[in-house]
C-alpha cells in the first residue's frame, strides 16, 4: 500500500505488460504497445525510465521478468546488452479520484556488458527518472558493492544530465527467500540509512499481484510525489 496516502493502489489487475528490445530475449515482445481502453475510459499515462543496477547474477533480469508478469528464468544467463521492458501500472489519486496509468520502462543491462562498453551506462542513465540499486541477500559482496554502485550511477547521471534532477535511487534486496542463510544482517540494513525493499523472484513461476505491488507502488508513489514537488504542488521530499 502507499505509505503517504497520495495514491490508491490498483483496484484490480488492469496492469498490462509489454516488452520491447531484442525480440529473441522477450517472449512478450510486440504483444501490446499500451493498454486498450474504451474511449470514454481514456486515462492519462505518465512515463518513467527506470535503470536497474547491480552486480552480475544479483537478479536484475529475474526482477524485471517478475514485475512484468513473465516467468522468472531458472538459470542465470548473462544479459548480453540492454533489454528494455515496459510495464503499465494503474493507480488512482486519492485526493481527486483521478485514475492514471504509470508506464515504467525498465532498462536492464548485463553487468559484464556494462563494464565492457563505456557507452552503455550513459545510455541507460540518459533521462532516467529512477535507479534501482540491487544487492542480493545471498551475496554479501553485492551488499558491500552498493556505495560503489550509487557513486557510479550518480557520476554517470551527472555527466549525462547537465540539467534536470538526478534520478531517484531505491535500494532493493533480492533473493530474500535466502535471508535465513544470508550474512547480510538486519544491523547491516539499518546501518545503510536507506529503506530497503526486499523481494524474492522464484525461478520457473509468475509472481502474483501482491508480490509485484510493493515495488511498482513504491516507484509510482516516489516518482509522482517528486514530480508534484518539482511543480511546487507539494513540499520537497527530503528522503
Ligand atoms: N532463489 C532465488 N533466486 C533468484 C532470485 N532472483 C534471481 N535469482 C536467480 O539468480 C540467478 C541470476 O539472476 P539474473 O536475474 O539472471 O541475474 P542478473 O543480475 O540479470 O545478471 P547479469 O545479466 O549477468 O548482470 C538466476 O538463476 C535467477 O533464477 C530470487 O529472488 N531468489
Ligand atoms: Mg541479466
From TrEMBL:
One of the GO biological process terms: exocytosis
One family name in Pfam for this protein: Ras
Subcellular location: Cytoplasm, Cytoskeleton, Cilium basal body
Keywords: Cell projection, Cilium, Cilium biogenesis/degradation, Cytoplasm, Cytoskeleton, Exocytosis, GTP-binding, Nucleotide-binding, Protein transport, Transport
InterPro entries cross-referenced by the UniProt entry: P-loop_NTPase, RSG1, Small_GTPase
GO terms of molecular function: GTP binding; GTPase activity
Predominant place of localization: cytoplasm
Family to which the UniProt record says this protein belongs: Belongs to the small GTPase superfamily. Rab family.
Protein name as catalogued: Ciliogenesis and planar polarity effector 2
Organism listed in the record: Anolis carolinensis
Higher taxonomy: Eukaryota, Metazoa, Chordata, Craniata, Vertebrata
